[in-house]
Write a structure and sequence with these properties.
By secondary structure, the protein is mainly α.
Length: about 150
């Protein structure tokens, strides 16, 4: 009879542990998925809601730091702060974080270029004007020197 009591106690403890683990796992999965966050961020960006887009990209990076999309999302946060929200201090911090965290990412050259030219009027960036001068058809839309827009 003792063996039955011990088996019953083991079964109860096991069930309580299993249910607790199930509730814990369910609590961890609350909130939007990686894909949902990325789609929301893109939608906000397309609608011109740049602060909301940056917030969703930041949330994705915070919630899913090992995601394959995390580097691109972090870069986009910097890009939005620099080029649409004119918050150059925040953009600088984000780009510097990107450079430290993802030194071999394909966007590393873009992040460094953005850092170098942060806050500059595109019409005053020499290499862009040189590019247009030597290859005026390089940019889409027929942009000409002195007529670049952010």
């Amino acid at each position: 009879m003792r063996a039955t009591g011990a088996a019953r106690l083991f079964f109860i403890v096991f069930c309580v542990a299993f249910v607790s683990l199930a509730f814990y796992a369910a609590g961890c999965s609350k909130g939007p998925s990686e894909r949902q966050l990325f789609e929301q961020a893109k939608k906000y960006q397309e609608e011109g809601k740049f602060a909301e887009a940056a917030a969703k990209y930041e949330e994705l990076v915070r919630r899913y730091p090992r995601s394959n999309q995390a580097p691109q999302c972090l870069f986009m946060v910097g890009y939005l702060y620099a080029n649409h929200l004119a918050d150059y201090d925040k953009a600088r911090k984000v780009y510097e974080t990107f450079v430290k965290k993802y030194p071999s990412d394909p966007l590393i050259k873009d992040a460094r270029w953005e850092l170098t030219h942060l806050g500059q009027d595109v019409n005053q960036i020499r290499e862009l004007n040189d590019l247009l001068q030597h290859s005026p058809d390089t940019l889409s839309g027929g942009a000409k020197q002195g007529n670049l827009q952010k």
